[in-house]
Design goal:
Elements: H1 2-12, H2 18-24, H3 28-31, E1 35-36, E2 44-45, E3 53-57, H4 58-64, H5 69-73, E4 79-82, E5 91-94, E6 106-110, E7 113-114, H6 125-130, E8 136-143, H7 147-150, E9 157-163, E10 170-176, E11 180-192, E12 195-206, E13 210-214, E14 220-224, E15 227-238, E16 241-254, E17 264-280, E18 285-299, E19 305-321, E20 326-341, E21 349-364, E22 367-378, E23 381-392, E24 398-409, H8 413-416, E25 419-420, E26 424-425, E27 433-445, E28 449-468, E29 474-496, E30 499-512, E31 525-536, E32 539-548, H9 554-557, E33 573-583, E34 589-595, E35 603-605, E36 616-619, E37 623-631
Parallel strand pairs: 6-9, 26-29
Antiparallel strand pairs: 1-2, 3-8, 4-5, 6-7, 8-9, 10-11, 10-37, 11-12, 12-15, 13-14, 15-16, 16-17, 17-18, 18-19, 19-20, 20-21, 21-22, 22-23, 23-24, 24-27, 25-26, 27-28, 28-29, 29-30, 30-31, 31-32, 32-33, 33-34, 34-37, 35-36
Helix pairs in contact: 2-4
Length: 632
């Protein structure tokens, strides 16, 4: 009945909300003045940011619909959310640069503060599924290196979620396919701009979609893998003092690390607490002290902790103007990592990371120059990461960026000190992964359009991967070099205040040190197209399609690996979403979000975690979610 209702509404009406229409009434020039901070820790327009930056605003999230961050991030050029039977919903791959099921090469920030799990370095599912969508003001994404500012793990890219500090009080409930039910809320208040608070939360319960597959033992079975997701975020501003906190909990059934039936279970909990104090010395100089504490716990049953880790960061930042045209930012970071795995014979293990960075930018009329460096002292290794950029606005509508950046990824606790007999052994001689990237971007805009074209080339050395030992267990090793290069095109066109289009096309190719091409399973071509149309100021329809070219197959890349071709492989496919909404004014808003509209069967894809089986289900078939939202 819900599907029939959804089809009828899709044909007959269309949606969007008056709140979104406020954003869409702006012209392109005004949207280009939107400020971001992720590329340099200084607020600047996207055109002036020393990085390849894409932004998704709260208005766009409301426009196209989303239930979690995966839904939002998949619309950004060069990004594909990946899935795995070992750690579902745990990874975002940028420019095809992932290394495993662990999200180690993407740095996640919440208001500029690292959300980095200390033991494995990339337990991202709690963030991607649990962070409240209602708390987001915008998402800033840098595709490319960020280690000169952020240190380890800012490798393939950086994702910075900027949260709301004030706004309307809202409550929403929804229900849909797979017996899915959700509830979200946001509350805010305060006496002034400098004294305020914001609270947001979300919850989801779902029986899950039907996961059918033949496992590594040749047994075919199917099961609905249900999940429960809870997330909350809070922020308070008391003058120069700020406090932010996030907690998420994801309970999830999945096939499991041994790739065989019956299914397995994880309960993953993560928390982040950040305290900051800003001291202004003058109108142009200030210092900020941040204390950030991140905890992560993984349960294999209601009371058995599998992985337990903490990550504590103390950072001092000094920024200001040396002259009217020269800005400087410098910082010192002290980072203590602790973690344990109940199956490891090592017990609790620890590591200390220390770093210092500096960056100087110079503005000469239409030309902006920036250089920066960061020194890192990590365990037994030290690393220097540099960056340089030239940004030239050579006419009123045209600009060009030339960027060079270095990145590194330090081995995490599980890679160097973990020891699970017969299964996984750490390697204390492991070197950091390093990468050098060159990028050139040209952009043009007019009164109703804006587009950018980017070419990137990255050279990765000392890539970390698995190596099998004589007893059948695995260890980590530096496996050699990889080269990535590609082209990204992104455009936005606003026909009028009621109709807009956005499109992106990205390609990437890679080659290892032996000359083998296509060593990553990510799509080498992605094309993304979205449009939103206002039927009236209260109603609209928004569609967004992601096209993914066929992935490389494990059995073709590694003919001697013994990959079993026992499941179907969807190959190239289109992931189309539709969001239709109507605002009833004081009576609230009703919306229908349709996910994977064109697929009547689950999407099968090579599993990034293992080469044993050719493909597993990674994405459900078509689903519907009917939502009611009320503004208090």
């Amino acid at each position: 009945m819900l599907q029939a209702f959804g089809f009828f509404w899709l044909i007959s009406c269309g949606t969007l909300l008056a709140e979104t229409h406020d954003y869409m009434s702006l012209n392109i020039d005004q949207l280009l003045k939107l400020k971001v901070s992720v590329a340099s820790k200084d607020e600047e327009t996207i055109a002036q940011a020393p990085g390849i930056v894409s932004v998704v605003t709260r208005a766009q999230i409301l426009e196209y619909g989303a239930t979690n961050l995966f839904d939002v991030l998949r619309r950004i050029p060069g990004i594909i959310p990946q899935n795995s039977v070992i750690f579902p919903d745990n990874l975002v791959s940028i420019r095809g640069g992932h290394s495993s099921v662990i999200d180690r090469r993407t740095l996640v920030l919440i208001n500029g503060r690292p959300f980095r799990e200390a033991f494995s370095g990339g337990a991202g599912a709690v963030f991607y599924l649990g962070f409240p969508i209602t708390a987001i003001e915008r998402i800033e994404v840098v595709r490319g290196p960020g280690s000169a500012l952020y240190g380890a793990n800012a490798f393939s890219g950086v994702i910075n979620v900027i949260t709301r500090t004030q706004g309307s009080n809202e409550l929403s409930v929804s229900g849909g396919s797979f017996k899915t039910a959700t509830m979200d809320f946001s509350l805010s208040g305060g006496s002034s701009d400098s004294v305020n608070y914001f609270l947001s939360g979300q919850g989801l319960s779902s029986d899950g979609w039907n996961f059918e597959a033949t496992d590594i033992k040749g047994i075919n079975n199917s099961e609905t893998f249900g999940k429960k997701v809870y997330g909350s975020f809070a922020h308070a501003n008391l003058g120069s003092f700020n406090i932010s906190a996030f907690h998420g909990d994801v309970k999830q059934h999945f096939l499991g690390s041994n790739q065989s039936w019956p299914g397995d279970y994880y309960d993953r909990k993560s928390s982040l607490l950040d305290l900051s104090y800003e001291l202004e010395f003058s109108k142009t100089w200030s210092a900020t002290v941040n204390g950030t504490h991140h905890t992560h716990r993984r349960f294999v049953s209601s009371d058995a902790v599998d992985v337990d880790s903490t990550n504590s960061i103390l950072e001092l930042t000094l920024e200001g103007e040396l002259t009217d045209s020269v800005k400087s930012i410098s910082g010192f970071i002290y980072n203590q990592l602790n973690g344990s795995n109940r199956n490891s014979s090592k017990g609790e293990i620890a590591s200390l990371w220390r770093s210092a960075y500096t960056q100087v930018s110079y503005q000469l009329q239409d030309l902006r120059l920036l250089v920066g460096t960061q020194y890192n002292d990590i365990a037994s290794h030290s690393k220097l990461s540099n960056r340089a950029s030239v940004i030239w606005d050579f006419s009123e509508k045209w600009s060009v960026k030339a960027l060079f950046g270095e990145a590194f990824r330090s081995p995490m606790l599980s890679e160097i000190k973990n020891e699970i007999p017969g299964e996984l052994v750490g390697n204390q001689d492991l070197l950091p992964e390093s990468m050098k990237t060159k990028e050139v971007q040209i952009s043009n805009h007019g009164q109703s359009y804006q587009w950018t074209g980017t070419f990137f080339q990255s050279h990765l050395t000392d890539a970390i991967g698995f190596k099998f030992l004589d007893d059948g267990s695995r260890t980590f090793t530096n496996k050699g070099n990889l080269r990535f290069q590609g082209i990204e095109f992104e455009a936005f066109y606003q026909v009028d205040e009621d109709l807009k289009f956005e499109v992106s096309v990205s390609t990437q190719e890679n080659e290892d040190s032996s000359g083998k091409k296509g060593t990553q399973i990510d799509s080498e071509l992605m094309a993304k197209l979205g449009f939103s149309y206002y039927l009236s100021k209260h109603s609209s329809l928004a569609l967004f399609n992601n096209y993914y070219s066929a992935p490389n197959n494990w059995e073709d890349l590694y003919p001697d690996s013994g990959t079993k071709a026992i499941n179907p492989n969807t190959g190239a496919y289109n992931h189309l979403t539709a969001n239709i909404r109507h605002n009833f004014g004081e009576f609230g808003e009703l919306s229908l979000f349709v996910d994977n509209l064109l697929q009547d069967k689950a999407v099968y894809w090579p599993d990034i975690s293992r080469k044993n089986v050719n493909a597993f289900p990674i994405q459900s078939e078509r689903s519907f979610l009917l939502r009611y939202r009320y503004t208090l």
